[in-house]
Records
---
Amino acid sequence: MPLPPFPLPRSREDVARELRSHLSEVSRLRLAAEANADGAAVREALRRWQSARLASAYPDLLGSPRFGAAARFFLDDLYGPKNFTRRDAEITKIVPALTRMLPAPALAVIARALELDALSEQLDAAMSTLLGPGRIDAQRYAAAYRSAGTRALRERQIALIVEVGSGLNELVRLPLLGTTLAMMRGPAALTGLAALHDFLERGFRAFRQMGDASEFLATIQSRESSLLERLYAGDPEPFGQWARDASHTA
């Protein structure tokens, strides 16, 4: 299945505004989530559960010599429980310089990744409120997922994952971008941009190693969309055998 074209910004000014907007929303949502200790504990337990669910859903991709690095990048950097405060703070400080230094496609990928971060924070906040403290299991998770009333946002989340992947797939075709990223490693560390540079370089390396990303992204889109349909249809075992023993307590 061919990848949809990655939507490029109309101008560098557009992508700078988009970066600032998503960073502001991410910061607001994270501050709100961390302001309440009980809520933060539920959120952390929810993210551990979701991360374990994702790992269980993609053993073939994670174990693949071709797809493994890209799958790990997605789980750790785009869809996982990591704290991106340092990376986001770096971007906030250097948005003007960033829009001068990097090509428009690279800036657009960062903007989409930040939009995905903000959306995931919003969805996790809604789920955490509905779940409350206690053991998270498949039944409670599925009930909260449906009760949140966020189907359109869940569909957008899946679309954003594919968009970010499509953008990275295009980045590896840019002449000299790999060399440019390698040359930036030292200066990035000296100027306090190590986390942002690491994010870009690991994503670039993972997708370059994989080659064409069509099969990889089609697999993710198909499985996540199928799970969404099962959850909203009230499937009694939407996660299969894995979920029977998977739980975390907030």
---
Amino acid sequence: MRILAVDTATKSCSVAVTEKGSLTAELTTVTAQTHSKHLLNMIRSVIKAAGIAISDLDGFAVTVGPGSFTGLRIGISSVKGFAVALDKPAVGVSSLDALAQQAAPSSYLVCSLLDARKDEVYFCTYRINQERLIKEKEEMVVSPDEALKDINQPCIFVGSGAQLYREVIKARLGKMAYFAPQSQNIIRASTVAYLSLKKFENDDTNEFGGLTPHYIRKSDAELNFGKPRKNRKQQ
């Protein structure tokens, strides 16, 4: 199966084409610019590098969150547009799942941490059993201390939150804290494609209306809705 995968959940932007589970072409960038300025050009470049036409694709995969609200909307709306136009299936993949998959294979617990700003992190813990991810709890947005409070065993940390709060983690867990290689803290679209394969095989694809961002946390606009204008200014 030939898949185009996209990740725009964080500051990085990644696009890949895989075929039968093997990587054909991939492009990843990290920039302060909005992903809408370069995502379509990246898609064109990766498809060209793969030596195919976009009509040759069998399906699409995209990270659906958690992550940047704007980034997620850009990636999901772009994938929806291509999938609808080509009448091809699409699959949503958790950004935290993708990070956990990129952690080195180990019997240790794996903790995906993404910087959620406001002194919080998006996080989830996993076991990796024969390359299969097993979630240990629901994805949440909490303070770094809250994310770490139940971890009392060797654990591999991965993601932008692991980088940002590295010293906090080390102070809390000491020698039980391990960190994924620096390059693995950025979500790769090829990982997103890999995780989507099982869903495609099980026909667990999303209806286009059901391919929506998984924000976890409400946006500032939602939090402020209905509050007196004076209170909004104080926040």
